[in-house]
Write a structure and sequence with these properties.
333 residues, mainly alpha, Dna Ligase, domain 1, 8% strand, Endolytic murein transglycosylase
Length: 333
């Protein structure tokens, strides 16, 4: 009888040991997964989120209660690898060991467009991100205005946590802007008598005038020459922007009546640079201004022989010839 009792006790002990080992250290994640746990999630909601990847849901729950994770839920984006034990999984979740998301943005025109792009990679809504850009305290703290804040985002690749708040995300972009404007770029800006804001403003015009990176430095040189000579920039993209700002209309072709629009962004009416960029400016455009080609061109016109590029001129007479050639080509279309 005692022999049978001892054997039974050993069996029970082994079962308990096996269960405890499996409960704590046995693999319970069935496949690689990335789980998103929103802010203010409850423990049952977490269980529902990761349940599709659990071999044994009950053991995960028991381990969570044992480690007090049910009272310590953290939001975030977490990578769970196949074969992770309950304890390993809880270690990741309870300590907020997130896997960052990679944000890539370029070819965005406005802060509104950017907010939409960013919201697709993080938990925050586009509306909240947009509001954070124009938050009065943020603008005041960093000496920005509702017009100049568009100069802050530098299109690039960034890593952030999925649950980053809107205000922290915007401040991160501000810090990245300061990193971008390193000593070398600041010196180049000073050499052409422009501030970083003015460089970004001119770069936005260059960017709108040409999408060809191999032409941007030439175009930048044209505008810098005009600024030095006290000539109006006379850039059609600034008029298009001014019309959009004032009337809310998108125009495809600039007419004579548009050239007279009363706006500080209208470079046909105003000398110098507009008060701020007319779009979010790409790095290639900023660097094109900082490294503008030195030449004597002060005019440019669409080149019908190389669509997408421009014909440049040093004199009004030469420019008028280029302009006439373009008009003849357009009439023939």
């Amino acid at each position: 009888m005692k022999k049978h009792t001892c054997i039974s006790a050993v069996i029970v002990f082994n079962v308990i040991v096996y269960f405890c080992f499996t409960f704590a250290f046995g693999g319970n994640i069935t496949k690689d997964a990335v789980v998103l746990i929103p802010n203010n999630s409850t423990f049952p909601e977490v269980v529902n989120t990761i349940s599709p990847y659990l071999k044994n849901e009950m053991s995960f729950k028991l381990a969570s209660y044992a480690k007090d994770y049910h009272n310590n839920v953290k939001s975030g984006r977490f990578s769970l690898k196949k074969g992770l034990s309950n304890l390993e999984t809880i270690e990741i979740l309870s300590k907020g060991k997130q896997t960052p998301v990679r944000i890539i943005f370029n070819n965005v025109e406005t802060i509104k467009d950017l907010s939409i792009v960013l919201s697709k990679s993080v938990e925050e809504s586009a509306e909240n991100i947009f509001k954070a850009f124009y938050d009065e305290e943020f603008l005041k703290k960093y000496n920005l205005t509702k017009e100049t804040v568009i100069s802050i985002p530098i299109p690039n690749t960034y890593e952030v946590f999925w649950n980053v708040s809107a205000d922290r995300l915007v401040k991160r972009l501000y810090r990245e802007n300061k990193i971008f404007w390193n000593e070398s770029r600041l010196k180049k800006a000073k050499d052409i008598n422009l501030t970083p804001l003015q460089v970004s403003t001119l770069a936005s015009i260059v960017q709108k005038e040409t999408s060809n990176n191999d032409e941007k430095r030439i175009v930048a040189g044209v505008f810098l020459n005009r600024l030095k000579k006290g000539l109006r920039l006379e850039s059609c993209p600034t008029v298009i922007f001014a019309v959009k700002q004032k009337d809310g209309k998108d125009i495809r072709r600039v007419l004579y009546k548009h050239l007279k629009i009363d706006s500080p962004f209208n470079t046909y009416e105003n000398k110098g640079l507009p008060p701020s960029p007319i779009c979010i400016t790409e790095i290639s455009s900023i660097d094109a201004v900082l490294n503008a080609e030195k030449h004597d061109y002060i005019y440019m016109c669409v080149d019908p022989n190389r669509l997408g590029y421009h014909a440049f001129a040093k004199s009004l007479r030469e420019h008028n010839k280029n302009k006439s050639r373009f008009i003849r080509w357009r009439k023939g279309q």
